[in-house]
Amino acid sequence: MPKNPEIKKVLVIGSGPIIIGQAAEFDYAGTQACRSLKEEGIEVVLLNSNPATIMTDKDIADRVYIEPLTVEVVEQLILKEKPDSVLPTLGGQAGLNLAMELDERGFFAEHNVRLIGTTSETIKKAEDRLEFKSTMEKIGEPVAASLVVENVADGVAFTNTIGYPVVLRPAYTLGGSGGGIARNEEELVEILENGLRLSRVGQVLVERCIAGWKEIEYEVMRDSAGNCITVCNMENIDPVGVHTGDSIVVAPSQTLGDKEYQMLRTSALNIISELNITGGCNVQYALHPESFEYCVIEVNPRVSRSSALASKATGYPIAKVAAKIALGYTLDEIPNAITGKTYASFEPMLDYCVVKIPRLPFDKFISAKRTLTTQMKATGEVMSICSNFEGALMKAIRSLEQHVDSLMSYDFTELTREDLLEQLAVVDDRRIWVIAEAIRREISYEEIHEITKIDIWFIDKIAVLVEMEQQLQTNELTAELLREAKRLEFPDHVIAGLTGMTAEEVKAKRKEQGILAAYKMVDTCAAEFAAATPYYYSVYGGENEAVQTRDRKKVLVLGSGPIRIGQGIEFDFCSVHCTWAFSQEGYETIIVNNNPETVSTDFDIADKLYFEPLTPEDVENIVDIEQPDGAVVQFGGQTAIKLTEALIRMGVKILGTSAENVDAAEDRELFDEILEQCRIPRPQGHTVFTAEEAKKAAGELGYPVLVRPSYVLGGQGMQIAISDQDIDEFIGIINRIAQEHPILVDKYLQGKEIEVDAVCDGEDILIPGIMEHIERAGIHSGDSISVYPAQTISDTAKATIEDYTRKLAKSLHVIGMINIQFIVCKEDVYVIEVNPRSSRTVPYISKVTGIPIVPLATKVILGHKIKELGYKPGLQPEADYIAIKMPVFSFEKIRGADISLGPEMKSTGECLGIAKTFNEALYKAFLGAGVNLPRHKNMIMTVKDEDKQDAVEIARRFEALGYKIYATRSTARVLKEHGVNAIRTNKIEQSSPNLMDLILGHKIDLVIDTPSQGVEKAKDGFIIRRNAIETGVNVLTSLDTATALVTSLENTDLNRLTLIDIARIAGR
Amino acid sequence: MNRKGTTGERMKAFLILEDGTVFTGTSIGSSREIISEIVFNTSMTGYLEVLTDPSYAGQAVCMTYPLIGNYGICHADQESLRPWPDGYIVRELSRIPSNFRSEDSIQNFLVQYDIPGIAGIDTRALTKILREKGTMNGMITTNENFALDEIIPKLKAYTTGKVVERVTCKAKKVLKGKGSKVALMDFGAKNNIARSLHERGCQVTIYPALTSAEEILREQPDGIMLSNGPGDPKECASIIEEIKKLYESNIPIFAICLGHQLMALATGADTKKMKYGHRGGNHPVKDLENGRVYISSQNHGYMVDTATLDPNVAVPAFENVNDKTNEGLKYIGKNIFTVQFHPEACPGPQDSSYLFDRFLKMMEVTE
């Protein structure tokens, strides 16, 4: 069936800010789908509140609205843009929920807008627990015994009939928010209460626990003619009980015979047919490990994290095909872009093995529980491809960038056998390392399986790797052994460590024996047809397929690896735009990256894609084959920057700012020299290695001081110390990981924090705009609300900032991007940080100023001058809009994480508020971040002594808005003294009713709690903040944020928002 | 469970192709030397079903999926009593099987039936050669002192010959049932053809390939099923003669794979050898009547040449979405339909099993 000619203008809804459970995969899917629609001549209107995405580029859609994802905004947008259709299946759960709500209101019908991709009946059948269950029963597909409950009593009664344990799944939440396994009534009541509140419809599914069964997923596609296919199946190594987003996943399934594989495949096709889905769908199964019994766990009638993974694992572009199906095409009419010979109605066949490992944020949240449950905690993931499972696992491990490179990276040798067996039962992110240790201790496969329920096949594969470690330790390193170790993807330096050689010696021996990495193609068809798309992965022992190209100049673009807190989707945005800019300049482009969720790893972004770990050895193997003319590292975040030295050693030219100058910005002494030459002040500071030196430095500077390691991203390990005791504690934390570089101790200045991104061509600079942070210095820039253009600093200060930026960029010989953070105290401007690379704010500032900084920087790197590119150097005139970037957090997902903001970054994503006035922009930004006030108009304030005076004004303003303010003793006293009618409440250790009762009573909209300094996990504040977050209450830990929020609330009478088309903000 | 060493000493083996390419790997199964036609199969699961599919008689099969043997051997999944390929070519055999139904390891199974094989070679490189140059003959040997100049002429001269007679059953066999009576001509039938009919209530009588049409018609079956099987259909001259008589009988006929090719030859059309065939579980076939596309299980190296069809006799009913080759025929004025792919699956997708229902309905209507 050809395209439906009635579809001409489509509204695509994105997924909003990156949060745990809804991440970059939707930018990948959305971008691919928008390109697919535009290819068909469709006018695309895009709505997404996330400015860091590629899908919100004017190159991707015709009309771009970076506005809050609310029903009102969509309604208004439909009235304004009059699309004939809405495609809701690309924006994850957020987009789907929004579409459902509008459909239920009858808005679409009223305005003659059709839902394409899937109907609301389908969404309901798949998403509504009750309808889903009855649909499955109708077609004879088994589901675990379950009941949807709307209150706790029903949940308890039902569980008593099916027995503990039970799994709880709230309806319409993402990433399994608020779900969990209850083993007894107490746990049941706790999780159920929480889940009922988090569910959009107040429903929670109570279900027979099938923990320990194999978890298998199928990605299926169906068109309007009823043709359906399976794109891929995947097996979770972690059995049912761990969220699939937190599981190690392998594709295709490894331990299923054809009978099991086809049984589930047929079931998945029956389900997608019965649900009448047109597009992509994910079906999750629990398969009994010792019978053919299975249960359907869940169906997602949309693109998802799993579909992104399946697309990258197979080369089959699910989102692209789903978009074409939404337009009316059938699968047999859509060509397979990889082969050019086959069609989308064919099932990919893999001739390799894919492993995905989640990137968990426990390095950021050191107080958090590492336990993995049905509540997803991962911020990102890595994928690797190899012709054997062991190799794929080894590659994925080193792609994580978490100081792990083998199964020896976590040390459990200290544990006794008993402790080890106990540790095996702990389901956390280190489990495969624990299994490796168990194998070293000769604990039997059966016993490991009995405890972990992980299939023996996987345990044996871990054993293969452990045996190789032992052979390398004990045997002579023959060519044969080395060949086998490389086949299993042991990195040279790990082999070196085990054999007592150096990595260089291992490499030399390898080369001498001709043991070299070869590259194979991901071609969707196991080599049955010739493929046209150079999408490669490496193996040892085989023919090299990478095509030797020498006709054009070649550039290597290093990606940014897995999404983690501090290094998010922004760097993928930069990598992709840099790639496109190189391409425009006539270069052949090569991307190396290992993140399956991103746009950069889509097979048609660069001329060649290498899906590989980003370590020096892996990159060198690619360099050996490709011989690029240069590499760019300034767009791939710290991951790429860290490779600079290695690239130089390989003889690869670093394009743009030279490595020495990158070092100069990071090396305290060199940097101080430059500042002195330029006469730019910075807060006083020292470099130290030990706690003693740090305390001495702090004594000289005077507390408070900032303590942080150098060469980190996202302020990792950075803390404000107010005492010697703090210094001891922080240095201890920093030194848990061996530091190659010194620790920095700086005087902490409280002032306005200002940030600029600039492009420098060696002579001139271009500053698109100055951004000002609402929170005072001391809160990480990534966690601050950022306002463009800066509102409260003087023109003199702005001129100084421009001047300093120019001086610094020139002194550091920056060619390309530079990011500088300043502190402004009245008219004094201090530099606090310089990063001679692209930053997190680049996508945001590009979009709101209309200046395409990344392409400009890329052209500058290639030798063009800012002047010849049509820009007047210097600070650009301010835009007509106020644009506010609001950080978004995922604290509710990470049990035990301290949510108080400080110099270490904690946000997972961001959203934008853009408007003609500051107040409207701020209101939009809070709305986009999901701060939806008021409901009950009750709030709690408990602030530290230093903040008490400032708190009065805020309290007064909230009171004027009708809020009832609860406060603990001393805060209440100060507020009352100043005429605020605060209600004194007991602290949590005091008798009920106390603060905790208020929070758990669900009558509180907001908690303002400014924590006293120091790590204070055991203190009240921590417990209050955690409980508030876990019960869905908004918590602010900075009075600056609170002031901004109250300002925004005072302006909520803006009953109509003005929607701004970003695509129309022309470059000036 | 005992652990086995990763790099235990295994005998070297060589795969020598008629174009002179030599792959070096390790020997699996028997260390016997064989010459055979080398083909590849892209299925990711179902290695036991592939091994026991009689259509692989006279061929050595390379599995493109690199990890084979993961779930061991479950005899109930066999498509016939024994493995048929002359040789077996894999990237890696799992050193342990893991599945609740597993009764044996694939290593033992190959040894037990004296099937030689080679592991540890770049199966993707081999597949690409076969794709580019077409199916060719090859030798698997453990003899390190082979002489290419002696071997290559031998490889070039090798032909598969008549294989149907090797794989067909020796005597008639009946699966009792209360429904329609089906005569199944066993040219190397996969078990699931009989099972699919029997499960639907049919009484299935399985006949050796060389049974005469008279003998079959004498039993007055309600329908005749022509099975899959190995080799070049044109080698089956005498069988084709019998099929001509079956065609004339007006009894409903359903044919799969080799059966489909034989019916075409029996009615005057021609078949030809494909460059490298279709072997796998992912081929889309389009039902030309309603435009629906099904993913099918396939295993064939020959095809019906549609240019030679007499439109008064037969018209295409299915075609391959990828390369537009013929995947099925409908015979004009007859209750006969034939398909090139495998609705009985095993291994592979079960999407086209509805064709057995169509056959059943056809038999009911004709009664």
TrEMBL record, chain A:
Its EC number is 6.3.4.16, 6.3.5.5. ATP 1 binds at residues 129, 169, 175-176, 208, 210, 215, 241-243, 284, 298. Mn(2+) 1 binds at residues 284, 298. Binds 4 Mg(2+) or Mn(2+) ions per subunit. This is Carbamoyl phosphate synthase large chain. The gene is carB. Residues 931-1068 form the MGS-like domain. Residues 931-1068 are annotated as: Allosteric domain. Composed of two chains; the small (or glutamine) chain promotes the hydrolysis of glutamine to ammonia, which is used by the large (or ammonia) chain to synthesize carbamoyl phosphate. Tetramer of heterodimers (alpha,beta)4.
Automatic annotation (TrEMBL), chain B:
Small subunit of the glutamine-dependent carbamoyl phosphate synthetase (CPSase). CPSase catalyzes the formation of carbamoyl phosphate from the ammonia moiety of glutamine, carbonate, and phosphate donated by ATP, constituting the first step of 2 biosynthetic pathways, one leading to arginine and/or urea and the other to pyrimidine nucleotides. The small subunit (glutamine amidotransferase) binds and cleaves glutamine to supply the large subunit with the substrate ammonia. Composed of two chains; the small (or glutamine) chain promotes the hydrolysis of glutamine to ammonia, which is used by the large (or ammonia) chain to synthesize carbamoyl phosphate. Tetramer of heterodimers (alpha,beta)4. It catalyses: hydrogencarbonate + L-glutamine + 2 ATP + H2O = carbamoyl phosphate + L-glutamate + 2 ADP + phosphate + 2 H(+); L-glutamine + H2O = L-glutamate + NH4(+). The keyword Ligase applies. HAMAP family: CPSase_S_chain. SMART domains: CPSase_sm_chain (SM01097). The keyword Transmembrane helix does not apply. L-glutamine binds at residues 55, 229, 231, 258, 261, 299, 301-302. Belongs to the CarA family. CDD domains: GATase1_CPSase. The active site is at residues 257, 342, 344. Pathway: Pyrimidine metabolism; UMP biosynthesis via de novo pathway; (S)-dihydroorotate from bicarbonate: step 1/3; Amino-acid biosynthesis; L-arginine biosynthesis; carbamoyl phosphate from bicarbonate: step 1/1. Residues 11-141 form the Carbamoyl-phosphate synthase small subunit N-terminal domain. Its EC number is 6.3.5.5. GO terms for biological process: 'de novo' pyrimidine nucleobase biosynthetic process; 'de novo' UMP biosynthetic process; glutamine metabolic process; L-arginine biosynthetic process. It comes from the Bacteria. Residues 1-181 are annotated as: CPSase. Keywords: Amino-acid biosynthesis, Arginine biosynthesis, ATP-binding, Glutamine amidotransferase, Ligase, Nucleotide-binding, Pyrimidine biosynthesis. GO terms for molecular function: ATP binding; carbamoyl-phosphate synthase (glutamine-hydrolyzing) activity; glutaminase activity. It comes from Lactonifactor longoviformis DSM 17459. This is Carbamoyl phosphate synthase small chain.
